[in-house]
Amino acid sequence: MACISYVFKNLCMFLLVVAVASRSGTWKIFDVRKYGAKGDGKTDNVNQDAWINFQYIDNLIVTGHGTVDSQGSHSWSSTNFDMNRRLPANMAFDFVRKSRINGLISLNSKSEHLNFFCVYHFNISHVNLTAPRNSPNTDGIKIGMSSNVKIRDSHIGSGDDCIAILSGNTNFDIHNITCGPGHGISLGSLGKHKEEKNVEDITVRDTVFNGTSDGIRFKTWESSVAEITVSGFLYENIKMVDVRHPINIDQKYCPYPPCPKLGDSHVQIRNVTVKNIWGTSRNKVAVNLQCSKSFPCKDIQLIDINLTHNGSDGPATALCENVKGSARGKMFPPSCLNSACR
Ligand SMILES: *[C@@H]1O[C@H](CO)[C@@H](O)[C@H](O)[C@H]1NC(C)=O
Ligand SMILES: *[C@@H]1O[C@H](CO)[C@@H](O)[C@H](O)[C@H]1NC(C)=O
Ligand SMILES: *[C@@H]1O[C@H](CO)[C@@H](O)[C@H](O)[C@H]1NC(C)=O
Ligand SMILES: *[C@@H]1O[C@H](CO)[C@@H](O)[C@H](O)[C@H]1NC(C)=O
Ligand SMILES: *[C@@H]1O[C@H](CO)[C@@H](O)[C@H](O)[C@H]1NC(C)=O
Ligand SMILES: *[C@@H]1O[C@H](CO)[C@@H](O)[C@H](O)[C@H]1NC(C)=O
Ligand SMILES: *[C@@H]1O[C@H](CO)[C@@H](O)[C@H](O)[C@H]1NC(C)=O
């Protein structure tokens, strides 16, 4: 069992102590200063893509409710922020299997709080990932090429996606998350790189989005080269509190316009069920289903939706583009889907 505690002093003058207990119960302290870190206020102590990185480990347990605070405000300020510069995540896990994080507070990351790549059988619970609304690129959890992942009982508030589900993920169960501020629990962005892989069997349930820009979100680049399929998504029992775009499939994703217009997204979205969703939409268009012209969304099912919009521009509406599917149960705003038989 590994138990980790962190002490960060200040941004440059930091001191980090990692204590690891083996199964026999003996503790080992790793003093990062012995590995080259300097707390002189000048040295850039990041050599890697994360402050703390775990690789090629089975049966890792990170616990103890310790705090990692990377005090990122300096790098978020508009004068210092550089979109093209890769800033370190608070923690990264690569090729880690049969492992879990239970209890961790991560604050003010410079980019994402937790990054996962090629993890299998990984449980994440009771984490609190917090960065302010205006902090760029501070995803809560960013994860790719992973399978059998459970994320539950956690609070994520950040300036970017609460959870970003990237290429090659299968079999996720995400539940009891409060997300806000942030950009929702998102598929993508996908489509940009040819080597991307399908994403399958993702469940998100019993979750609250509070004051976020998006809630349920799919984003694929408009001019995307990757021909992949995204399927088997279930979003169920979800409350929206003042969310700008509660349900949003955006296959013309372009965060920093103008984007090159080379053609339609080649990402096929299919078999997505959105069930029992209620609450308030800040925008009039509460349900936005804008799919690819070349690869229209298929088998999109809306069941029991009640999203209200309170504004001078009238009640909430739904928008459909290149999408096939069906709607049943309560349906506010009224569905724009035609019948599945079409
Ligand atoms: C993850 O949680 C499930 C139950 O929700 C449990 O069966 C499994 O053993 C856990 N895996 C790890 C690695 O903790
Ligand atoms: C998350 O941690 C922050 C900072 O410690 C704290 O202010 C906030 O109340 C915590 N949120 C939850 C839901 O525990
Ligand atoms: C949901 O997660 C919160 C922590 O964010 C926890 O306090 C609460 O007990 C969980 N609810 C359930 C039903 O497990
Ligand atoms: C939403 O967040 C605000 C603070 O930002 C809080 O006061 C409110 O209780 C939250 N609402 C829900 C339903 O969680
Ligand atoms: C659709 O996705 C669900 C998971 O959300 C899965 O159980 C079901 O088998 C899928 N249906 C088809 C026809 O692929
Ligand atoms: C939908 O939500 C509104 C506002 O919360 C509520 O007044 C209304 O009764 C709900 N409609 C249904 C059919 O549940
Ligand atoms: C709708 O907005 C108006 C003006 O902001 C406010 O007075 C009213 O309480 C709101 N109604 C609901 C149901 O939120």
UniProtKB/TrEMBL annotation:
* Active site, per annotation: H183
- Native species of this protein? Brassica campestris
What UniProt keywords are attached to this protein's entry? Answer: Cell wall, Cell wall biogenesis/degradation, Glycosidase, Hydrolase, Secreted, Signal
The molecule here is called Exopolygalacturonase-like
| Record-linked InterPro entries | Glyco_hydro_28, PbH1, Pectin_lyas_fold, Pectin_lyase_fold/virulence
Task: From the UniProt annotation, give the residues forming the signal peptide.
Answer: 1-22
Q: Which Pfam families match?
A: Glyco_hydro_28 (PF00295)
Q: Which family does it belong to?
A: Belongs to the glycosyl hydrolase 28 family.
Where it sits in the cell: the answer is: Secreted, Cell wall
Q: Which SMART domains does the entry link to?
A: PbH1 (SM00710)
* Single GO molecular function: polygalacturonase activity
| Single biological process term from Gene Ontology | carbohydrate metabolic process
Gene3D superfamilies in UniProt: Single-stranded right-handed beta-helix, Pectin lyase-like (2.160.20.10)
